[in-house]
DNA sequence: TTAAAACATCGACTTTTGTCATCGTTTGCT
DNA sequence: AGCAAACGATGACAAAAGTCGATGTTTTAA
């Protein structure tokens, strides 16, 4: 489990990282079951999670208690509610496990320590933030300019893995489409 | 013009910044006329801009050459295509002036220098990035969960200034609504 | 100042998307 | 294994959003 994270870091920062093992030791392994929450909106997000295995859903409830999924994150990626994590304010989003997952969590104190002790780790945060930002920008532009059918086609082209891995309901909520509409449009392809 | 930036920085980082004047001197003033581009998609974004006065539109073209506006940024804020600026890759978005504007531009080299010479300036970048990210997340969640009418109401509540300052066409494109639909719904409020 | 262009609004119509109820299938749980 | 719950597909209908053409208004630029 730790190996996945070690590989991930080495892949990005190279092999010459001082204190790599100390860094790795600051992460706490967490096992979550399918549908279990690791963050509920209103709470403060205390951790940044590295997903060693599994899949997480980041979402908000709309007024009718439907959930709208802002992001779906799979293994070998980072997931958190960075705004809450960084500011200490209550999170607006919730995060739950779509599948049983293996996570490595690091809290704020350890995160800060690491940024100071391991200079390169500062880059990790920047990378996480930049990747998250790029992802959001991309998503907005996709969203605003494509209709329901085009969004489905987009997902099939760029994330075909998600099409088979996730339930229709979840995909529809990720694409911002009603699940019945998703079902219909998918059929006519 | 420089005063606006000085105030902006002091407001965030406090008054005890070494080399503040040197920092400010790294910015190049740029005047842009209404409708003038400062970045076209396909080019590399070479600057981060501080808007001393005016208003910029960040947008992409969809397949029918309509533009869909990802962001509208007004004076006393930062604007850039951060992904391109950071990576040196071609920008996917374009940026143009909605009004005649006064900008202060800093290029990558100066930006890097400053991060090294003025330790606190590193924070500025992080703040810009975090603010941009938070903005995007907020926008996605608003967008996915609200219908056209609700999005208009949302804008009227949180950014009433934009409602009067911008053309209907631009607002509609920012809200992801057809301009005729926007006109109709606005009338029935 | 004035002609051209861009803008805003509106009605009539089309297309897309959402809702609801139903029904057979799959899945999860004990 | 067996039951309940969740899921997925679909038809009929309702609501929302988009398109187009016409018209009057405002801006822009020469």
From TrEMBL, chains A, B:
This is Crp/Fnr family transcriptional regulator. It comes from the Bacteria. SMART domains: cNMP. InterPro entries: cNMP-bd_dom, cNMP-bd_dom_sf, RmlC-like_jellyroll. It comes from Flavipsychrobacter stenotrophus. It holds the Pfam family cNMP_binding. CDD domains: CAP_ED. Residues 1-115 form the Cyclic nucleotide-binding domain. SUPFAM superfamilies: cAMP-binding domain-like (SSF51206).
